[in-house]
């Protein structure tokens, strides 16, 4: 087995928690790392000081297991302040994932501090550019994913084998993966691990509001919507009255500021943390159809590894067809 992901991240299982705006708290990241995966503290929706607080909580919860942070570049106008906090805490972190922007200007600095650099990509061309810029590991994320997706709208099924053929660095598959069979499928497509987001929101340790978790259990992929196309972005969220208003507005050729008023971070916070889902929006991927409970991270990892074993057994029977 290709275990470059395990050696780059220092974890036991190649299951990574993606950055989760507003709901990527330190206890969640630490619990995922302690369970054998790789957790990442989210910085979107947090000040640099709040990010540091969550890094401290993650370190405590992880009990020595390595974890990282996510830096979505376009989300922070003051991104240097975040980079400074990351660099001055480099000893406590194993990796930084760079998303939503060009990672090139940051990669060397972060690597010189001893950090593994993960770059998020959504096309094979972006993957080649991120590899050339020095990224150690790529997350190739398909259009099924919750949150911001690439404008090319490549689906995970088409994207992973294409990226695997385009680069030498190891790849984590993301987008629509919420079960152990999804993880095994990612390996079959050429990935060396996975990054999951939506599934980890519905866990005991995630600080998302209980109403958000309840909606994830209740709803299906039919209920996800793409907002922000009018401003050149592709963001997969869960339908709500507020999301319907955004989509209505976007049909009417609105100005940037009109759209921004409805999609700004505060509208995510009121729903994801405040629990008033109809008055805002929450990120949600198509894998929501596979979520029916909010277990502890430990319980979820036991389930995922059981499903991986089962899926591996099923795939073995393919062999008999091929002889
Ligand atoms: C609630 C939520 C918030 C997210 N916030 C971020 C973020 O701040 N930075 C980032 O790089 N990706 C973010 N993502 C994407 C995830 O890190 C991950 O790549 C994605 O969720 C994978 O697809 P899945 O939701 O189908 O598992 C977010 C996803 C969700 C569901």
From TrEMBL:
Superkingdom field: Bacteria
One Pfam family in the UniProt entry: NMO
Molecular function terms from GO: dioxygenase activity; nitronate monooxygenase activity
Keyword Oxidoreductase carried by entry: yes
Alphabetic keyword roster: Dioxygenase, Flavoprotein, FMN, Oxidoreductase
Function: Nitronate monooxygenase that uses molecular oxygen to catalyze the oxidative denitrification of alkyl nitronates. Acts on propionate 3-nitronate (P3N), the presumed physiological substrate. Probably functions in the detoxification of P3N, a metabolic poison produced by plants and fungi as a defense mechanism.
Protein name, entry field: Probable nitronate monooxygenase
Species assigned in the record: Ferroacidibacillus organovorans
Upper lineage: Bacteria, Bacillati, Bacillota, Bacilli, Bacillales
